[in-house]
From TrEMBL:
Residues 5-198 form the AMMECR1 domain. The gene is amrA. PANTHER family: AMME SYNDROME CANDIDATE GENE 1 PROTEIN, AMMECR1 HOMOLOG. Pfam families: AMMECR1. This is AmmeMemoRadiSam system protein A. InterPro entries: AMMECR1 (IPR023473), AMMECR1_dom_sf (IPR036071), AMMECR1_domain (IPR002733), AMMECR1_N (IPR027485), AmmeMemoSam_A (IPR027623). NCBIfam families: AmmeMemoSam_A, TIGR00296 family protein. It comes from the Bacteria.
Length: 198
């Protein structure tokens, strides 16, 4: 993958361990139970290193059902996945909380992020030129307001103009703000994996 994560890519077993933990956390949250304990014997030692993740849930029709995460690492990867899996199920304001009967039909995707890097640019045209569709996740910041799209969003919004305009809307700003004002822009890459890939 891009952005220097190649040497640190998770193994198939480590991915399976995180997906299993995410599903257990979602089941517990939907049933109003405490989160599953994390037993170090059940996880690779690497998964206790700091990591930033987003957990995305899709319903049985493949539609988005929840997505929550962190842009920067502040806790061990296993704890980050457990916390964001439960939050994606219960706390994404765009959706009602996941009901217990929905859990079996959910498909879980985990995105592990590289640290965000500032993207230097002078003009809107240069910003467009420097973005790498399909590779870069993008963070826009305007003072205290910020919003991000994971690299996967390029699949739905492949045109950079549209991508940035929708990201401005997500931030609560006018769609053309990125063309009228020089915003802070950061990019990152992800290692993405989901249930049912192997």
């Amino acid at each position: 993958m891009e952005g220097g994560m190649e040497e640190q890519t998770l193994t198939r077993e480590e991915r399976a361990q995180l997906l299993r933990l995410a599903r257990q956390a979602i089941e517990a949250a939907a049933n109003r139970r405490p989160p599953p304990p994390i037993d170090p014997a059940e996880f690779s030692p690497r998964l206790f290193e700091p990591g930033a993740t987003f957990v995305t849930l899709y319903d049985e029709n493949g539609d988005l059902r929840g997505c929550i995460g962190a842009l920067e690492a502040y806790q061990p990867l296993v704890e980050d996945v457990r916390e964001h899996a439960a939050a994606a199920a219960m706390l994404d304001y765009r959706f009602p909380p996941v009901r217990p009967e929905e859990v079996p039909g959910l498909r879980i995707e985990i995105s592990r992020l590289t640290p965000p890097q500032p993207l230097e640019y002078q003009t809107p045209a240069e910003l467009i030129e420097r973005l790498r569709p399909g590779i870069d996740g993008v963070i826009l910041r305007d003072g205290p307001q910020r919003a991000t799209f994971l690299p996967q969003v390029w699949q739905k919004l492949p045109d950079p103009y549209e991508f940035l305009s929708h990201l401005c809307l997500k931030m609560g700003a006018p769609a053309n703000l990125w063309q009228r004002k020089k915003l802070q822009v950061f990019t990152y890459q992800v290692e993405e994996f989901k249930e049912g890939e192997d």
